[in-house]
Amino acid sequence: MQAYIALTPGDGIGPEVVAQAQRMLDAVAARYGHTFRYTTHLIGGCSIDQHGTALTDEALAACQSADAVLLGAVGGPKWDDPNAAVRPEQGLLKLRKGLGVFANLRPVKVHHALLDASPIKPEVLKNVDMVVVRELTGGLYFGSPKGEDVVNGQAHAVDTMEYTESEVERVVRLAFQMAQNRKKKVTSVDKANVLATSRLWRRVTNRVAADYPDVTLEHMLVDTASMKLIASPASFDVMVTENTFGDILTDEASLLAGSMGLLPSASLGESGPGLYEPIHGSAPDIAGKGTANPIGTILSAALLLRYSLKLEVEAAALENAVEKAIHARACTPDLGGKLSTSQVADYMLEQF
């Protein structure tokens, strides 16, 4: 296979972890006879500094023409002013919209060798293997009207949570399709006792569920889900939810694995390139120190192989290399290891 992969390393530790994922992709290409071509583009704060915008139209066009996009992270204290007209996160939202990705898949698997790395009791973590499917293009982040003004002499701000039937259906249907190849259970998370959007979400979910009689559906309010995610995480298989709830719950779920640095994600659309990134942020406090955990980005590269390039054997081989490193505790300090960012990849390449 010949494939074109656009790299958007971003800010903070983004360039460090993306570089290690690229090394692993190159090893996959060499071992299996593929050719991967890369281009690198600015996004986030570094793009603001150089171009005055968080993502240029040229960078977006390059990503749109790729087979897949591998992202690092965006943001940092330098660009944290909430009143700034241009912010790093705008580049990420522009990229998601430009690629047409609407579902963010975040697998959460607890490795036996890392049971002691999580603050959760080891007996609670056994057999945790779930996927959160987060709707990515609707809800509070994109609804209109949005903004801040002055009403009756007071500052007034509004964000609108809105969804259409088709937006809900496509992401819920994807969740059911994933569940068919897993443990055949979908948990749909909403706030239907309060929110009109959640009541629409629940009605559409029930209708879609009728097309998948082999999959069990349960509805759960988001506050209950946030509690059960800690109390009984192994009870979940595929969780599907709207944008804001998914953003919060997936960060909570990272506690199960032991470190945010472990978890990958894949953002998929109906066509075009997928967007792959670790769930962690730019971690500016450790940028340049060589201690950033590259595993989440390397596992994101495995998802890239699986979903965009349809290379299942290669994806599994990369995941196996990660498993070997974790089992040997060939890890960075956040997981109790002593290796640097590049040394973790060195170990995986030796086992690959």
TrEMBL record:
GO terms for cellular component: cytosol. It is found in: Cytoplasm. Keywords: Amino-acid biosynthesis, Branched-chain amino acid biosynthesis, Cytoplasm, Leucine biosynthesis, Magnesium, Manganese, Metal-binding, NAD, Oxidoreductase. Coiled coil: none annotated. InterPro entries: IsoCit/isopropylmalate_DH_CS, IsoPropMal-DH-like_dom, Isopropylmalate_DH. Substrate binds at R96, R106, R134, D223. Pathway: Amino-acid biosynthesis; L-leucine biosynthesis; L-leucine from 3-methyl-2-oxobutanoate: step 3/4. NAD(+) binds at residues 76-89, 281-293. Its EC number is 1.1.1.85. Its cofactor is Mn(2+); Mg(2+). HAMAP family: LeuB_type1 (MF_01033). This is 3-isopropylmalate dehydrogenase. It comes from Ornatilinea apprima.
